Structures are given as structure tokens and as C-alpha cells.
Amino acid sequence: MLPNFSLVDFLYLCGKITKKPMDTIQIKDKTFAISIPESAILKQVQRVANAIEHDYAGQNPLFLVVLNGAFVFAADLIRAVRLPSEVTFVKLSSYEGMSSTGVIKSMIGLNTDLTGRPVIIVEDIIDSGQTMVHLLDEIAAQNPASVAVCTLLVKPDNLKVKLDVKYCCMEIPNDFIVGYGLDYDGYGRNLRDIYTVVE
Ligand code: 5GP
Ligand code: MG
Questions:
Q1: Rg of the chain's alpha carbons, rounded to an integer?
Q2: Distance 139 CA to ligand 1 centre (A)
Q3: Is the CB of residue 170 less than 8 Å from the CB of residue 37?
Q4: What digits encode the pLDDT tens for the residues 47-91?
Q5: Beta strand 86-96 pairing with 177-178
Q6: Which of 95, 157, 158 maximizes ligand 1 atoms within 8 Å of its Cβ, making it the mutation to test the pocket?
Q7: Which residues contact 100 (CB under 8 A, 6 or more apart)?
Q8: Which residue segments constitute the domains of the chain, with CATH numbers given?
Q9: CA terminus-to-terminus distance, the chain
């Protein structure tokens, strides 16, 4: 049998079962179902990379990646932007389990001089928007040439602040998700697809 080809796939193809069960996984106490397959994610990442490449032609953008969640997105995005660029990281944390504590902790601070640089913030997901506002304030204090927000996902229904999100791959409903860098209590970051909690 082919790799990644399960008995259920086989029975479905043979017509022995009529409905393929939802692709679900278990992480700790929660069940998650695939909501955005890797192919759809990568298509949107490429679209955003093309836009950045177009908008920053002739400049050397500095990608400021927000750890931990954005590391997978950043790796794909930055390699798809065919411009001379630099990468730096900050580590922020506001989530515990499945909800935001509202208190943004800076675990690794800004350690690159942003003065006069065109900065592109690379974030995994904008939920309430509080993390981004906090970061934008910190960055503005360093007088960069420009700042743009680039995020894999936005949950528009949960946004509590006004934010100018220049680059966004996808908008999603207000449900908890994991995969493609995003975690549930530290797990699930290595999943290639994005999964939504079902129970
Ligand atoms: P905000 O400050 O916008 O409310 O929260 C942003 C941060 O919360 C994101 O960078 C991400 O780390 C985390 N977050 C928000 N929604 C989700 C979600 O559905 N799943 C996961 N794993 N993290 C999330
Ligand atoms: Mg994040």
C-alpha cells in the first residue's frame, strides 16, 4: 500500500464504505479536524509573497518574525520573496491553552536596530489584535522607515482594535486552530495542515 494511504482510504476507494470519516486528530484532551489543507495555505502564502516582492522592489525589507507561532509561515514566506532581505525575531506570548490572557509577555525582545529600515512584521494569527498593537508601539519607538503587518490568519470577528493589516493570507472564523506553526499547549506546530477544534 502507498505511504499515507490508510485502510479507511482503501475501503472507501473500493466502495466498501460510502462516507470517508473526517480527518481528525487528538491533541491532549481536544479533537481537531482539518480545516485548511497545506495546498490551500501554500497558495495563499505565494500570493502574499508576490505582493511583497512587488511592493518592496528595490528595498531590503527586514522581516520581524513573531515567535513561536509564525516560524513555519515565515520560513515559507521569506523564501518565496525573491528580494535581498534580513530576518530577525521577537518572542511574545499572550496565550495559555486555548485563550488569550490579555497580558503580553515579551520573552525575547527586539535586538536589531530598526532605525530607517522597511520592517515587515510576520505573525501567525491576529485574534483580538492586542499583541500586534503592543508590538507596533515598540517598533514605532525605533523610527523605522516603514512598518507593514503580514499575517497568515486573521479572526475578523474577534478584533478589538483598529489595525492596518497590509498582508493577510486568510480570514477565519472565531474558532481555535492548530497546525502550520500554531500550537495547543505546545503541541501541533509540526502539522502541515491547519486543524480546527471540534470537541
Ligand atoms: P491577540 O493578541 O491578537 O489576541 O492574539 C494573538 C496571538 O494569540 C497569536 O499570535 C497566537 O499566538 C495566539 N492565537 C490566537 N488565536 C489562536 C488560535 O486559534 N490558535 C492558536 N494556536 N493560537 C492562537
Ligand atoms: Mg503569534
A1: 19
A2: 20
A3: no
A4: 999 999 999 999 999 999 999 999 999 999 999 999 999 999 999
A5: unpaired
A6: 95
A7: 94, 127, 128, 130
A8: 38-170 (3.40.50.2020)
A9: 32
In short, whether 178's Cβ falls inside 6 Å of ligand 1 is yes
- Give the DSSP letter string of the chain: --TT--HHHHHHHTTSSSSPPP-EEEETTEEEEEEE-HHHHHHHHHHHHHHHHHHTTTS--EEEEEETTTHHHHHHHHHHS-S--EEEEEEEEEEETTEEEEEEEEEE---S--TT-EEEEEEEEESSSHHHHHHHHHHHTT--SEEEEEEEEE-GGG--S-----EEEEE--S--EEBTTB-BTTB-TT-SSEEEE--
CA distances for 38 relative to 21, 34, 60, 90, 169, angstroms: 19, 10, 29, 26, 13
Q: Rounded to whole angstroms, how far apart are CA atoms 181 and 131?
A: 17
Provide mean pLDDT across the span 28-37.
Answer: 96
Q: What confidence category does residue 109 fall into, taking pLDDT thresholds of 50, 70 and 90?
A: confident
Q: What is the pLDDT of residue 4?
A: 59
Q: Residue 104 CA: which ligand 1 atom is closest?
A: 2
Cell 477544534 belongs to 197
